[in-house]
From TrEMBL:
The keyword Phosphoprotein does not apply. The keyword Cell inner membrane does not apply. Signal peptide: none annotated. Coiled coil: none annotated. Residues 24-168 form the Heparan-alpha-glucosaminide N-acetyltransferase catalytic domain. Pfam families: HGSNAT_cat. The lineage of its organism: Bacteria, Pseudomonadati, Bacteroidota, Chitinophagia, Chitinophagales. Keywords: Membrane, Transmembrane, Transmembrane helix. This is Heparan-alpha-glucosaminide N-acetyltransferase domain-containing protein.
Length: 382
């Protein structure tokens, strides 16, 4: 539970302090929404064959803009867990009630992820049990339970233990059958573990980026967000919070870089160095937004992020539904994205620029239902 320092004054004054601490941060709400928008941009280009390098996932080792989107979202999920459950605990809601809510919310998010995997054919013979939403569901469940039963120091130690254990497992345990340690695609211990224990098909045939073992370090990413949320809930001054968050971000990114020299930064394996680098960058981004938006009051431009973030998972799901129309259906033998690409490239536009422009247009299309839901005060809580 959020710890409060006892001060002289009435119970109403004490409650007022807590309410001030647990009020929603505009910066956090906006960042969560902007992250969803970024997911749509990188998932739905005009053409998969024409994409700027940094808008692609790195083939293996390395770090692009696209590689950072998923860990940022998990980081902000962690921060949101701290805010949501500190408030609920203070309201006196029992842990047993919260456990039920956490379980069913995780189940709903996982189910939505499975529906996306099955669309549009619903071929259960080639079902894939993992995916972005499935990982979010599992990580949210584990981290929310952790938050209710541990303090921030214990959470920090758990995250450190997960990162170190994962590093030792991947660099010290030989891949069975190979007789040596391997970190290449499809032949490492992570892929071997999935081949033995992950049912269904895998995204890459012999391996899956949302693997069982890499979910361990995904939990660590979310924990770093919980620690950031705990900092924001503390009684430190706003300026102190920014200083702590920005300093932690710098040191985390630097530590991840140097760890990456021995254990490469790799999103597909979600390596320990990848966690530190991306969590460091996410902390820096959070700190900068918090300073500009919540401290300085510069909220101009945050509204689109808030609108997307209000129904984040629902809009992510809806984007996949829209994609069936814009990518799968043929109009005169050509899909809408192909018509768009042909139209712009025929007048001399660079194919990569046209592809990016289409992705941004697709974001705007998804913004319309997001805006309507927000305006009608409809919040779909998955």
């Amino acid at each position: 539970m959020l710890q409060q320092t006892k001060r002289p004054g009435s119970q109403q004054q004490t409650k007022g302090v807590l309410q001030q601490q647990t009020k929603r941060l505009v910066s956090l709400d906006a960042l969560r929404g902007f992250t969803i928008a970024a997911m749509i941009v990188v998932n739905y280009p005009g053409s998969e064959d024409h994409v700027y390098f940094t808008l692609r996932h790195t083939i293996w080792n390395g770090l692009s803009f696209t590689d950072q989107v998923a860990p940022y979202f998990l980081f902000f999920v962690g921060a949101s867990i701290a805010f949501a459950y500190a408030k609920r605990l203070d309201e006196g809601i029992s842990r047993s009630t919260l456990y039920k809510k956490i379980f069913f919310r995780s189940l709903k998010i996982y189910a939505v992820g499975m529906i996306l995997n099955l669309m549009p054919d619903f071929n259960f013979h080639a079902i894939r049990w993992t995916g972005t939403l499935q990982r979010i569901a599992v990580v949210f469940f584990i981290c929310a339970i952790l938050y209710l039963n541990t303090n921030w120091k214990q959470q920090a130690w758990i995250a450190a233990a997960l990162l170190i254990s994962y590093w030792l497992a991947l660099t010290c345990i030989p891949t069975p059958g190979a007789g040596k340690v391997m970190l290449e695609p499809g032949v490492n211990i992570v892929a071997w573990f999935d081949s033995k224990f992950l049912p269904g098909t895998m995204w890459r045939g012999t391996w899956d980026p949302e693997s069982i073992l890499s979910t361990v370090t995904s939990v660590a990413t979310c924990i770093t967000g919980m620690l950031a949320g705990k900092l924001m809930l503390s009684q430190k001054s706003p300026e102190e919070k920014v200083n702590y968050l920005m300093t932690a971000g710098v040191f985390s990114a630097i530590a991840g870089y140097f760890w990456g020299l021995a254990f490469p930064v790799n999103e597909n394996l979600w390596t320990s160095s990848f966690v530190l680098v991306t969590s460091g960058f996410a902390a820096l981004l959070f700190g900068a937004f918090y300073f500009l938006v919540d401290i300085k009051g510069k909220t101009k431009g945050t509204k689109p992020g808030i609108i997307f973030g209000a129904n984040a998972i629902a809009i992510y799901f809806l984007a996949d539904v829209w994609a069936l129309i814009f990518y799968e259906f043929k109009f005169g033998g050509t899909s809408l994205n192909e018509k768009f690409m042909e139209g712009l490239t025929s007048v001399g536009a660079d194919a990569r620029f046209a592809s990016l422009l289409y992705a941004l247009l697709f974001v705007c299309i998804n913004f319309i239902p997001a805006w309507w839901l927000y305006r009608k005060k409809i919040f779909i809580k998955l």
